[in-house]
Structures are given as structure tokens and as C-alpha cells.
Amino acid sequence: MSENKDPHVAHTSETTAATEEVKFVYDFTEGNKDLKDLLGGKGANLAEMTNLGLPVPPGFTITTEACKTYLDSGEEPAALRDEVSAHLDALEKKMGKKLGQADDPLLVSVRSGAKFSMPGMMDTVLNIGLSDKSVTGLAKQSGDDRFAWDSYRRLIQMFGKTVLGVDGDLFEDALEAAKKAKKVAVDTDLEAGDLKKLVTKFKKIVKTEAGRDFPQDPREQMDLAIRSVFESWNTDRAKLYRRQERIPHDLGTAVNVCSMVFGNLGPDSGTGVAFTRDPASGHQGVYGDYLQNAQGEDVVAGIRNTVPLADLEQIDKKSYDQLMQIMETLETHYKDLCDIEFTIERGQLWMLQTRVGKRTAGAAFRIATQLVDQGLIDEAEALQRVNGAQLAQLMFPRFDADSKVQQLGRGIAASPGAAVGKAVFDSYTAIKWSRSGEKVILIRRETNPDDLDGMIAAEGILTSRGGKTSHAAVVARGMGKTCVCGAEELEVDTKRRRLTAPGGIVVEEGDVVSIDGSTGKVYLGEVPVVPSPVVEYFEGRMHAGADDADELVAAVHRIMAYADRVRRLRVRANADNAEDALRARRFGAQGIGLCRTEHMFLGERREMVERLILADADDEREDALKELLPLQKQDFVELFEAMDGLPVTVRLLDPPLHEFLPDITELSVRVALAESRKDSNENDLRLLQAVHRLHEQNPMLGLRGVRLGLVIPGLFTMQVRAIAEAAAERKNAKGDPRAEIMIPLVGTVQELEIVREEAEQVIAEVIESTGVELKLALGTMIELPRAALTADQIAEAAEFFSFGTNDLTQTVWGFSRDDVEASFFTAYLEKGIFGVSPFETIDKDGVGKLVKDAVKAGRATRPDLKLGVCGEHGGDPESVHFFHEVGLDYVSCSPFRIPVARLEAGRAASHSVGSDHR
Ligand code: PEP
Ligand code: MG
């Protein structure tokens, strides 16, 4: 559900002028599930359940607008107090008692509830309305002294901690001391008298620590609690959580004031959680936990063991049957898996919360198709119920679920995958061991830019500190490496080269560990890895229609079919060889959007390239090119054959030539050593001179792309000839080659015109010499701001544009990717300057704006201009939606990301025709 979260915006608060008409408080009877922006998720759903006639304790919600006003100005909006009073009056009338009334008090809970769930991040205060006076009234009404005093001590404790900022340990210590004095182990064994004494003690703690008495006025309790919920939006942990989850900072939280119901009034009371179907598999059934004689926080605290929800049938059949009925109502109404919190007070069932429940990636696909089969949703809606990130997760190899494993601990699932290797505790060892063929897992407390080489060498990275935006997490995700970070229960001792897990298990350097970047789990020893069934399916090795077809695969197959049916964007692959091209085709690619030819200049051909670079005379250079020509041609023949009938965009050489020469330091040392031995090698000397000559301070902005084509005679024309001859050969073999020639790094139309003219001449020569009619489209990459800004002119000479958003992001931001990602991106992410790296998700406001404008300008010049993107963003879910919106014809991405791009292109298309998605 990321539709409203723009990761690139450092959100500033929009101040809404508090006019008289603004309504800040909504009774539960007034809201509905679609008002999440205003009432938060909890408030909107409580209102929805109220309107469905379900048993929700009466109450009201204070809007996120009120919170935003408070956070902006430091004061509650002027009208809030009166509105709260009016709603409280109405609530008191409904309940037949007043807040904090001495002989029979109405008690309320004050709970936070933002648009997006932020579990445990913000404040809640229960039992508001209890005081020295009303506690006796509650005791009398409930006929249970113990319950009343226990409720009062909980209020002072919670209020003291969250509202008055008293150190929570002081209350916990006092509670422990009371248990010790009484020689009991659990607080349920404390009696009314003990709890009464504890209340006195707690009040003293408040007085000493907060410098004020615990407020006896119930309205003051409520107002202070509401304010503290507002303020809890901006605690450090809440901010950090939002950054990690990409939740905008300017949403604010709503506050729910709800009449209290009690699950701790004896064995005929209790509290529980339930799911309408299994959030792990999607199967329907009775899933949940119940705890008798308990309040909500007891379940979380794990003081006593819960029982499976099914046991409630024996404990309280009436409530159980009613709950099952309500769960069915909710599923049918929300048309989705719901999770529920409920309380039973002396045999009366109350619904405290519901929401569309979180689920695993596999369950998301299964549930979406199950709901289609049940007739609850249509195919367009099913597409909105899954996303590309979930599909990507399903494609990683996974640890074999059947294997016997010993779990060492668990951290944050920072970058998915399953990695196995020997534990190493520094980058030097990681590199050394991996060079000798060992697989290693780099284990650090946290990583820093010095660890980069070690991270590259490792199979996976494990850290004991840092969250989803820590250096390790960001860099690992960027590299597609498995990473578990922030596994705090694991003690990492890099000096002694060991890790200690809970229970004293020690992992020494060299011991094998396995890490699961999709769950955050860390295991001792080698856990066997199995390929994902979803990849087996895309590879064509598993068939969705087979009798024994995996249920998940069948669901993925159906959803992919919906996506393919509705999407407008075509999906191509970035692939440089026949093997990748064939895989891409199996994965559904509709062509190649980027064939990077530099990979064809490496290996054994490097020597020829060296000769080309070192050539002093024209004939030397021509000889080198002549040698390269047939090899290049063969590369293209294979590629066109693999992609027969589909377009293949071949990019002429892009990187600076020195990338094909030896490393400057290594070569200098070699030459110096040879000189000292007096056996200098002439070739090495010439190479060294060339390396010096071609050395650039800033190669990314140097002699590369079209610039190479313009200054190295014959280089681009050799490549064009190879493409044309290969196409002719394929045609002669009755193939259907659809080659497109792409010129990289163009900044001005003049560059393109020159290269184009030369290319056309070569193509004409090939047509002439082979007698084969060829139609080769010529186009360019848009990778420089100037190219984007002059797209109208460039389109005069280009039949297609392919946005190279990797370079375009570098040049628009002035970032050198390799340098900045490892050095300061973590800091930028932590400071919220951007929510996600602009190399991962397109920066819509900056880079995206250039793309959008260039699309318009290019099409104005040439209405049939073909438009695509081949930067990494072509496979990024959120970016795919953007490219759909700006009207590109296709996205191109690495073969493994093709299914994700297909799915997201389908989601973008069905979303924009307006489906009833959440
Ligand atoms: C790009 O710049 O987006 C691109 C695809 O080119 P490369 O990544 O090869 O520089
Ligand atoms: Mg580029």
C-alpha cells in the first residue's frame, strides 16, 4: 500500500488553516473505512464496524488534522476543547454515566491511530477516569476490589510513563518489590490490599519524578493523554520507523477515545486476536489466540500462555459463535483478510479493532486468487492486492523448509536471499578467503565504506547493529546481496573474531552460518538451499496447469495472466548474450531494450582492443578493427537468433577506453620492476603511456559514449557493420532480425547527426554488398540533462529514445554513483533527505520531470517516436508506474526483474482505469 508514499519528498507539513467549519472530532457513528487520512486506520475501521452494527464500544476519534495543527503550532486547535466536550457529553449520555463519576465511573482508553499502522510506535493510555474517588466506585460496581485497584495502578503506571515522561523502570521495580514482599511470582497473585499500597507508591513516584501530583480530574487526564498521543508522532523511534517504512512524516496521527471494556473481570472475560484466514498460507480457518481473564497488554507481555482461538468454543460458545459470524461479515465486507482484536467482558463480546491484515508474499498471491474465485473481487482488484516486491521475494532461492536447522538469532530482513558461508569478521579476510574459492558471510557490528570490497566478496552480510537504512542494508540491497542487519541478540566481537548467540553458542571464524535475508533469521551450519518454485515456473520447468501444480505457482500464473492482459507498457530485457536473451524470453521479455556491447570487448578480445587503442597509424587501427568485426558479427547473429522476431536494441560502445587497459598501478609496478631487471617490455611501456594519456580525473564525464565514436575513427562504423551484416545473415537464414542501433551519451543533435550519417552509409554498403533489404532503426539514449532539454531537436535525428536513467540520475544530481552510494547515502537516508536511493526508484520531481518533458518534446517533433527506459529503474515497481504514467512504450530491465516489471505494468494500467483498490 505505497500509493501515497512518495519516497523522494522530504515531507514538509502542510498547514491547514483551522477555519470554523473544520470538524476535528468524529463519533464512531460518523466515520467510515475510507476516511483513513483523517481518522487514521484504527478510527476509520472502528467507525466502519460501528456502522455495520457490530459490537464496538462507543467512542469518538480526534482527527489527524487536529494533530497536525498541534504539531505545527504547539497548541491544540481552538475549537478542539469544545468539540471534545460535546462528544464526551454524548458518550456519557449513551453510557449512562460520567467520565470518572465517583460511584460508577465511565472509563475510556486514549489510543493513537495513524493512517498506516505503526505497531507499538506511539502512545496508548487505558483506564482514564480513575481517581482516588472513582476507584472505590469501580470496585463497588464491578464487585471486585482487586480489579479496581489493579486498573488504577495500571493507569498511574501508563500515564506516568507515557504522558508525564517518568522512567517506566521505576514502576516496574516497585511492582517487582511488591511481588517479592508478598513472595509471589506473578502480579495476578497480588491482592487488593497490595495493589492499593502499590497505588500509593506509584503516586509518590509520579510526584517525585514529574514534580506534580497524578491528576485527579478525569478530564485533565484525558486532555493530557490526547496531547501526549499527538506528541508521540514525533518521537525518535516513530520517526525512524516511518523512514524505514517510507511513511511520510506529515500525516500526523488520529486519537481514538473509546469507552473501556474489561477482559480482566474473571474467567468469563478475556481478550484475543484473530485472523479471518491464515496470513501465512491464505487458507480459511480459525486462526488466532485467546487469553482468559486478561487485558490487551497481558497478551503482548506474554505473562501467561494464550490458547488457540478454537478453544474459545469450549470456554464461551456463545461469544465464539458470534465472533465467527462477525469474522465472516468482515471478510465479506472488506473483501480481504482482516485481523481483529476483541475482548469479552463477562460473556459480552466487543470488537476493539480490525484492519486488512498483513500477510506473507505467498499468501498475498493465493488470497487474491481465492477471493476472485469466491466472487468477492474481480481480476483488476486482484492485481492491486499483490505487488512486485512480493513477487521478487518469491523468486529468491530459499532455505529448504524441511531441513533441520539451529537458529542462532534474528535481525532485520534487510536484503532478501538465502546465503551460506564461513563466518569472517573483517573485509580483508572476506576478500582473501573468497579469492581462494571459499564462500563467506561477512559479519560486522556495522559496516562502513571501508567494508565495501569485503561486502562484494561475501555471499551475504550480517550485522548486529543498524536498521533497514544502515550502511550494510543500503549497500547490500544496491548490490542485490543477501543481508540481515541489526541482529542485536548476537554479540559480535571482531577483535576475537567470534559471535556469541543467546544461550552462549559461539561461532568462531570459519564456522559455517546461513542467513535468510527474507526473514532476518540466522542459522548455525549449512542450511540447504532450493530454487524458488516461482522461478521454476517462469523457467518453464514447472507448469501451472499440471495436476500436482503448486498452489502458489497456480496463483502467480493467474495473476501474471491478468497483468499481461491489461498492461500497456511492453517489457524488454537488458541482455548482452544469447543465454540471457533466452532466459529473458522465457520470463516474458518482448525484446532487448539494451545490449551493452562493452562486454563483447573483454576476455580474449581485450588484446585486440589494446591494439586498437595503441595504434599510431590508420592501418594498424584498421587491422585491429578488422579482427574485431567477425567476432562482433557472430555475437549479434546469436543474439538476433535468440530474440528472433523481437526488437533488439544494440548500444554502440559506451565506456571510456581505459577501462579496457590494465590498472595504472599494477602496470606501473610491472614496468618499474622490469626496468630494475633491465628487461623492459616495449608493449608494456607503450601501454603505460596510453594509460597515462587516457587517464581521466572523472571518467564518468570524460571520453565515452558518442564522444568515442566521434574521435576513434572506424570504431562505431565497425560495430554498425557487424550489426548490419549479422542482420543480413539472419535474414538469409530465414530469420526475422529486428535490430535497432543506439548511440549512447548524446548531448546535442549534432553529435547524433554525424554518427547517423556514417551509420547510414555503412548500412547502405551492407545492403549493396549482401543484396539483403535491411531496415535498422537508429536512435539514442537520453542520459544527459542537455539531451533531455533539447529532446525536440534530438528527435529530428532519432527514431527512438531510450532513457538511460542511471546516467541521467548521476548527471542530474551531480552524483557519481559508485562514490556516493557507499559514502554518504546512509546519512542522507537517515536524515530523510530522500526515503529511497534515487538510483533505486526514479526521482519523479527531478529526473522524472526531465523524462516527462523530453517525452512530450520528442513526440512533438516526431509523433511515432518510440520511447523506452533501460536504466535500472525499468525493473523497479514504483518507477514502472511512473513510466506508465508519462506514456513510455516499454521498460527494459535485467532478465530476473522482467516478471516484476510485467506485473507492475499491469497494476499501473488497471490502477489508472480506476479500480476499487485499497
Ligand atoms: C543508463 O545510464 O541508464 C544506462 C542504461 O547505461 P549504463 O548503465 O550502461 O551506463
Ligand atoms: Mg549510461
TrEMBL record:
Belongs to the PEP-utilizing enzyme family. Residues 554-906 form the PEP-utilising enzyme C-terminal domain. It catalyses: pyruvate + phosphate + ATP = phosphoenolpyruvate + AMP + diphosphate + H(+). GO terms for molecular function: pyruvate, phosphate dikinase activity. It holds the Pfam family PEP-utilizers_C. Residues 78-305, 313-362 form the Pyruvate phosphate dikinase AMP/ATP-binding domain. InterPro entries: ATP_grasp_subdomain_1, PEP-util_enz_mobile_dom, PEP_util_AS, PEP_util_C, Phosphohistidine_dom_sf, PPDK_AMP/ATP-bd, Pyruvate_phosphate_dikinase, Pyrv/PenolPyrv_kinase-like_dom. Residues 438-520 form the PEP-utilising enzyme mobile domain. It is an enzyme of class 2 (transferase). It comes from the Bacteria. This is Pyruvate, phosphate dikinase. Its cofactor is Mg(2+).
